[in-house]
């Protein structure tokens, strides 16, 4: 699975494909139809990495918007900035892998509106355009981390190159830790919310 | 000397393992492999049994160590123990699918002489780290993609455990952008 002959999908199609593959496509979301996902379903290692990168760029965009919202306490912002640094590293690692496969990374979301349209594939109501409190911010990041987990988990079974699978397993581990950190801030003292399941696959 | 996992745990663990085995979606995916594709084999069974050995060790360590933890630590430990049992159940199912015989936990484990909460947290941290290392080693080697996905999902949960343990130990909970099993 290394060919790259098909026309490159749009960001919207990449996100829809990643979310649908992870079982995250929200029912009734008109902007992102299941047909979009089917049309863009990743077939090659390069396409898989590109779809994950589209999600990672959405994650980075979301963290940046949350930080710039001014709604975080100093302590929370300190943690969130560390997680953002990690997300930048994930983008760098995957971009390098994608370039080795002869492709360039997708563009990041063009605007808050565009990012919110992509986030609408997630179940839940969090929107970057309506971050009115620290709780709003953390709830949104919790959902974003779930989407990222789903993108990695689904791809794990599809990679032809097992080295890519190992890299993505390492990153899935980090995304699981990020979820725990964010959920820990959102639900202090509630370990069941911070570590909700024995298998980290992204939540539907 | 802290010893665990003998008869005291065996009954309850067996019940939980029976309840957990095969419940994870990726188990059933492995059985659907048809002609032409890779099939799980003896090498897979050996790799998976090694992971199962480490999960058994983790189950024993949590079982023995939880009484020495603070009330908050016990709550965390009990949840993590339940999740380790789920991992063991999943791995047992995968070993079976690979044609192997799932290893059982040992009668006893020698965990040295931990006497404080910090001692126990260090022990649990060491075992979780070994598990993550072993998962990362096994993932590129197993035959089926569905097995890789199941191992990655368990690895990520162990990564969550270790981040909580690190926080309890006063260390940075998430020190690296990629989980390596060395942190």
The low-confidence runs of chain B, each spanning 5 or more residues with pLDDT under 50, are 5-23, 25-34
Care to count the β-strands of chain A? Answer: 0
Per CATH, what is the topology of chain A?
A: Ferritin
Structural class of chain B: mainly alpha
| CATH class type of chain B | Mainly Alpha
Q: How many structural domains of chain A?
A: 1
In N-to-C order, the SSE pattern of chain B is HHHHHH
Main sheet attributes: strand count, strand direction, barrel closure of chain B:
none
Shape of chain A: globular
Largest interface: A-B, 45 and 46 residues
Number of separate domains of chain B:
1
Task: Estimate what percentage of residues of chain A fall within beta strands.
Answer: under 5%
CATH architecture of chain A: Up-down Bundle
Oligomer: heterodimer
Q: Could you tell me the number of beta strands of chain B?
A: 0
CATH superfamily of chain B: Ferritin, core subunit, four-helix bundle
SS field, number of helical segments of chain A? 8
Which blocks of ≥5 consecutive residues of chain A have pLDDT under 50?
A: 1-5, 23-32
Q: What is CATH's topology name of chain B?
A: Ferritin
């Amino acid at each position: 699975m290394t060919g790259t002959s098909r026309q490159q999908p749009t960001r919207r199609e990449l996100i829809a494909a990643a979310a649908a593959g992870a079982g995250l496509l929200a029912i009734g979301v008109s902007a992102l139809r299941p047909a979009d996902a089917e049309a863009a379903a990743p077939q090659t290692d390069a396409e898989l990495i590109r779809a994950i990168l589209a999600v990672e760029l959405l994650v980075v965009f979301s963290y940046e918007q949350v930080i710039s919202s001014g709604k975080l306490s100093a302590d929370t912002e300190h943690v969130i900035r560390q997680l953002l640094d990690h997300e930048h590293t994930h983008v760098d690692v995957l971009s390098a892998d994608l370039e080795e496969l002869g492709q360039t990374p997708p563009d990041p979301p063009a605007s808050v509106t565009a990012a919110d349209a992509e986030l609408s594939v997630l179940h839940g109501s969090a929107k970057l355009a309506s971050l009115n409190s620290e709780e709003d911010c953390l709830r949104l990041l919790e959902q974003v981390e779930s989407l990222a987990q789903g993108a990695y988990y689904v791809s794990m079974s599809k990679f032809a190159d097992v080295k890519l699978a190992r890299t993505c397993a390492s990153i899935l581990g980090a995304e699981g830790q990020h979820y725990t950190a964010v959920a820990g801030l959102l639900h202090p003292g509630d370990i069941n919310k911070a570590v909700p399941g024995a298998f980290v696959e992204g939540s539907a | 000397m802290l010893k665990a996992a003998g008869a005291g745990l065996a009954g309850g663990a067996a019940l939980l393992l029976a309840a957990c085995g095969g419940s994870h979606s990726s188990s059933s995916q492995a059985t659907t492999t048809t002609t032409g594709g890779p099939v799980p084999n003896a090498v897979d069974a050996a790799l998976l049994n090694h992971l199962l050995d480490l999960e058994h060790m983790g189950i024993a360590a949590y079982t023995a160590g939880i009484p020495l933890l603070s009330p908050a630590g016990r709550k965390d430990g009990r949840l993590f123990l339940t999740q380790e049992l789920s991992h063991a159940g999943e791995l047992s199912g995968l070993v079976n699918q690979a044609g192997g015989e799932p290893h059982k936990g040992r009668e006893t484990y020698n965990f040295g002489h931990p006497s404080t909460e910090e001692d126990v947290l260090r022990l649990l941290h060491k075992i979780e780290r070994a598990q993550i290392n072993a998962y990362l080693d096994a993932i590129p080697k197993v035959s089926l993609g569905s097995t890789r996905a199941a191992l990655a999902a368990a690895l990520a949960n162990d990564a969550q455990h270790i981040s909580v343990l690190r926080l309890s130990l006063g260390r940075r909970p998430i020190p690296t952008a990629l989980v390596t099993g060395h942190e």
